[in-house]
Specification:
Strand content: 5-15%
Pfam families: Aminotran_1_2
Keywords: Aminotransferase, Pyridoxal phosphate, Transferase
Largest sheet: 7 strands, mixed
InterPro entries: Aminotransferase_I/II_large (IPR004839), AspAT/PAT-like (IPR050596), NHTrfase_class1_PyrdxlP-BS (IPR004838), PyrdxlP-dep_Trfase (IPR015424), PyrdxlP-dep_Trfase_major (IPR015421), PyrdxlP-dep_Trfase_small (IPR015422)
Number of helices: 14
Strand order of the largest sheet: 2-8-7-6-5-3-4
Enzyme class: transferase
Number of domains: 2
Oligomer: single chain
Number of strands: 12
Distance between the termini: 59 Å
CATH architecture of the largest domain: 3-Layer(aba) Sandwich
CATH topology of the largest domain: Aspartate Aminotransferase, domain 2
Family: Belongs to the class-I pyridoxal-phosphate-dependent aminotransferase family.
CATH class of the largest domain: Alpha Beta
Bound molecules: pyridoxal-5'-phosphate
Length: about 400
Amino acid sequence: MTDRTWSHYINPTVKAIPPSGIRRFFDLAAEMEGVISLGVGEPDFVTPWHIREACIYSLHKGSTTYTSNHGLLELREEITKYLGTQGVQYNPRSEVLVTVGVSEALDLALRTLICPGDEVLIPTPCYVSYIPCTTLAGGVPVTIPTSMEDDFRLTADKLEAAITPKSKVLLLCFPNNPTGAIMNREELLKISEVVAKHDLLVISDEIYDRLTYIGQHTCFASLPGMRDRTIVLNGFSKAYAMTGWRLGYAAAQGDFIGAMTKIHQYTMLCAPITAQMSAMEALRHGKTPMENMVAHYNRRRRLMLQGFKEIGLPCFEPGGAFYVFPYIGDTGLTSAEFAEALLLEEKVAVIPGDVFGPGGEGCVRCSYASSVEDLTEALRRLGRFLKRRNIT
Ligand code: PLP
C-alpha cells in the first residue's frame, strides 16, 4: 500500500455508488432529541410472541446447525403452500430458495440474470436498493418515472416507451415502497402483455403483499404466461414484523433457482436455521396476529390521509405497504429542503422523495408504522410548519 490510500484500490463501480440518501437524514435525526421519526421503513411491532417462542423452542432442541443450501424443506413446503393461495404452484424441492432477507434474494436474482450492459427497467420512485444493486451486478438501470396523476402505477405505454433491444428485466414492486401504490389484476395483465411481447423477464418484489388495504393483491407470477418468466421475491420482514431475523425467499422456475443457489451456496451457504424455524411458525400460525397488525396499519393510513386533508397537503391514496407520499411541491421547497427544514424546525423526520429516483421529487415519504400518538403529534407539527410558511 505504501503511499497509496485505500481509495486507489477500491473497485470504481463501488466507488461510484452514492451513499444512501436516507442515511443522511437518520444521522441528522439521531443527533437531535424529541424527534418523531416517520422515516423508518420498519414495523413498530415486536415479532408476535408465538414466533419468538418457536425460536426459543428450536434453540432448546439444539437446532443450531447449517441447513440445506436451499433452506429447510419443511419451510419451502410452507412457502409453496402460501404461494399456492396466491394462485401459483411451485415445486418446494427445486423452485424455492430461502435467502437472507429479500435483500439477498434481490442481489442474487440480479447477479444471476445480468450480463454486462443488460438493461433493467425500474419503475420509479423505487426502493433505494434497486438502482445500486443493478449497477453492482453490471447492469444498466433504466428508470421509468411514474407520477401522482397515474397514482404511481406503471402503465403499459410507459413501459413500452422505455424498452430497447438491450432490455432484459423488469423490476416490479407492488405494493410499492415508497409510494404505497398498488396495481390491480387488470393493470398488471396489461403489463404482462408487454413483457411477453418483448420477451422480458420479471423480478417481482412482493414483500408488502399482505399489507394491501384496497382489493386483493395479485402475484405477478399467477398471471397467464408469467410463471416461468417471473422471479417472485418475498419475505418475513414486513408482514410478520421480522426485520431483524433476516429471512426471505425467491420462487421461480427450477433452472433459475438452481443458478441462484450456486451463488448463494458460496456466499451465504444458507439462511440462519433459527430464523427458518421461526418463519415456519409464522406461515403455519401467524395469520391472525399478522392480520391484527395490518388492521392497525390501515387505521393509521386513514389517520394520515385525513390529517393531510385537514392541513391541506395533497396526497394520493396509497393502497398498500405502510407509506404515504404527500406532495409538498406547493411549498416552493425541494423535497430535500422540505425534509431538512421540517426536521430542524419541528423535529419530524420524513424522507425526501428524490432519494427514491426520478418521479420522487416534489413528494416526501412518511412511514405510518408508528404509534397513533406519534402520528397525531407529527401531523400537528406538520400543520404548524405549513402555517408558519403561509402554505395552508
Ligand atoms: N424490498 C423492499 C421493497 C423493501 O422495502 C425492503 C425493506 O425495506 C426490502 C426489499 C428488504 O427486505 P428484507 O428485510 O427482507 O431484506
